[in-house]
Request: fold
Amino acid sequence: QVQLVESGGGLVQAGGSLRLSCAASISIYSISSMGWYRQAPGKQRELVASITWGGSTNYADSVKGRFTISRDNAKNTGDLQMNSLKPEDTAVYYCNAKGYGYDVWGQGTQVTVSS
Reply:
């Protein structure tokens, strides 16, 4: 079983920063890809950022230069540092982990950016 526990969501003013953390119950070396997705009201879920086992990253165009995804091997976490937040970043953010034979999601955490 792979379990993901999210933390770090909350309310922040525009221009501020938040750091989301996704803690995995297994070594991140066993995870092929970890990603952060978000879903705003009335919109489909979209990929925000992802990182592979080898450290390759991918970002949505809307967050490039502002968000950074990383992994912490010691803590078995995949983190999303969000800087220069905008009101349009407001959404429920979901952590996802994929490996051979599994595809697991976290429960989601609300991020609200006020103007």
The chain is about 0% helix and 55% strand. The mean pLDDT is 94.
